[in-house]
Each structure stands twice: as structure tokens, then as C-alpha cells.
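pinning this so it doesn't scroll away 📌
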Amino acid sequence: MHCKLCNTRLGENVRFCPNCGNDAGALSGKEVRPKVGRMARLPVRARKLGEAALDLAEPADPGDSSDSSGPVRSAPRKATGPALLGPEPASVREMLGGRPELLEAGLRIHTDAQGKSVGIDYSTEVGEIDLLGRDAAGSYVVVMVAAQGQGEDYIPEVLQRIGWVRKHLATGSEKVRGILLMDQPPESLSYAAAAVADTVTFKTYRMSLCFEDLRI
């Protein structure tokens, strides 16, 4: 007996053709099953890979009017800016103690009657003042550096220290104001700032990183 598809001679009791896989015993009108081999499974694996790629792609823009039958494109990634470097509050206090003019032009550390600088960690009955200074006009300046993430909580403390300085140090027409530094100003700060706008100034800080070539 010979295979009806490739005419390969078949042995006795051999139903499937060893050459093409045809069912030589099938009658006319029955489905001929192809030989399942390596090549027959390749399209199945390719289709599965394609389906997995679609699952991993980001959703298309609902407003996109392009043909949905085309290739799926991932949505563009959002650009992210460089991360800001923030020094520790303790480092900010130390830096201001050495260079208070960085905070405000003309700002200097408060001195006692003998001319000694005593404004760093100035002790009062309501707590220490990080920096007690005098501005170019001679007014007292109470500077406080808030702990990380606690800027708004320091407002009552600044006001207490301003009140203490007004009561115990300021004389005559000498003015007293405050500066509160914080790393992350909260969204609700604008309301508190409006209430003390004539007394307290709010500032934040960040670190600048500079790269320079070495001359070797």
C-alpha cells in the first residue's frame, strides 16, 4: 500500500505515513492530521509570546484615534527631575552660626555688653533659640531651624521666643521678628503664615552640588 499524499510505500499494518504523517487508513472525507513535530509547534509559541507582550504593555491613550489593530505602543514615561539634596537641620544650624549673612545680608550674631557673641543656642525661659541675631537696622532676629517634616509645629515656639526677646532684651523702639527655616513646607502653611506675616518670615533650604574638572 502507498501513501495517497506522497506515494511512499507503506508496510503492512502501517497506518500513518512515516514521511508526511498522513493517515493512510483514513477514508475519503475524513480530516488528515498533519504530523506534530517541532515546526508545527513554533507558531503556537510565537503567539503566546505575543500575548504576553500585550499584557505587559501600558494602556493606550483613550483619546487616541489611531487604528486599534496596529501595534501596541507603551505610553511615554514621565520625565523626572533630579532629586534635591537636603542637609540635616543640625548642619544648617552649624553653618548659620559661622555665616549668618548667608541667611540675610547684614545679619550678625547677637553679642552681650562685652561684645562677645552669645546668640548661638541662646537660652531663654521658653527654650533655646537656634540663632539670635541683629539685622542691618539693629532689630532682633529670632532664627529657628525646624526638625525634618515638622516646620509648621515650630510656629508657636518661634512666637514664644519672639515674645521673650521683646520682653527681656528689646528696649524702646527696637523691633523683634523671626525667621523659621524648614525642609518641606506643608500645603497648609499659607494659612498660618498669613496670621503671622508681620512677625515671622518662612524660608526653606537646599544644597547645591557642583562638579569641576581637576587640573592635573
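📌 and the second one:
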Amino acid sequence: MDNERQVGAVQLNAHLRGVSPPVTRRILIAEQASLGEMHAALQVAFGWSDEHLYVFQIRGWQFGDPARALELALAGGGVDIPLAAFEFEIGEPFLYGYNLFVPWEIECRIEARGLIAVAQPITCMAARGDPPDEDLAGPAAYPQWLMDSDPAWGLHQIEELLDEELDDARFRDEARDILAQVRAPQPTRRAIAEHLQQLPENAWDAGSLYEDAGPTGH
């Protein structure tokens, strides 16, 4: 039965470059997963929408999705290649870039090999840090975003509104604007794993999971 069968998998540490405090995810994924499926996994793990261009850089070669930008694929290769084809060494890194006008760069380093159930070919083993809004102007904007989106700061701003003589309509408008800037609670390992495990049954469409979850799910 598929629920009992296992296949080879790689454990990798995905580290978002250039931000502090660190934002990392440890992922276990079947070796037969393609680069395109790896992309979907990283989108879900970091709570992003899958709306921008992306590229993998592996051993000096570039791999992109020809459906999004043909020149990215022509420069190296497509993203239908399985991870197993690269025969990664333990400790070997590769780079994933997303929203290439910024870009966000995630260094993925192979930590170990193992087994994973055929029925659930991906999971999250550890998670740390608040992933940034993908439309920020890069890592340099992360510290300010982290402060401005802090729920405690949002609550403080709303408390200050209460001291002002505002009519109900204006108070609601300003409070709504403040709350729109507040980031969701830091995603837990379990929550990320649950979203990742929905990917195969959603044809590895990270964008649909983002839409279904809404902002609070990320």
C-alpha cells in the first residue's frame, strides 16, 4: 500500500540570505521530486504567493520555468528535472532565487538522506523566523518591516488612537489600516508541514494553497 511504501528522500536546510534574525526551514522531500516541485515547497514553507519569477542555480548552471520566462530555461535548463538527477553530496548547497527584481535568495544545503512515505512525499522538520513580505525591497528592508509589522506595535498604535478624538468611522478606517500592516503569527513547524502535505493533492500548485489559506495562514 502507498501509505506504507517509502522512497528515497533528501533532507535540506533552506536559509533565507541577508536577513536577521535568521529565517530557516528544514525540509524532507522525495528525491524524485522535480525542481518545479521543490520551488512549490519553498513557496509554501516561506509563505509566499508564487506570483513572481524564480530560478535555481546549481553547480554554476541556471534552471528556470520556461512557462514563466523562456530565457531563464534557455540559459540552463527547465525545472522538470528530479532532484535525484543531481546526485547531491551531503553538505552541497544550491541557490534558489525568487522575485528576481529584488531578489530573495534561499540557500538550500543538503544535510542528509533518508526515506519518506510515498503518500506524503514532503514535510517540514523544523522552522525558525518570520518570512518577509515577498514584495519588500529586499533584505535591507527586512529589519524595518519586522518592527513595523510587530503585533505589539500595532496594538500600541491602536491604543494611541483611543486617546484621540476620532469619530467611529475614522477610528475604524485607521485601525483597519494599522491591522493590515500587522504580520501573521510566526508559522509553526506543524502548520508548515500540514500545508506542504497538501501540495501533492493540489498538483504542487503553491499559489492555490496561498489563496485558500489567506494572509492569516502565512
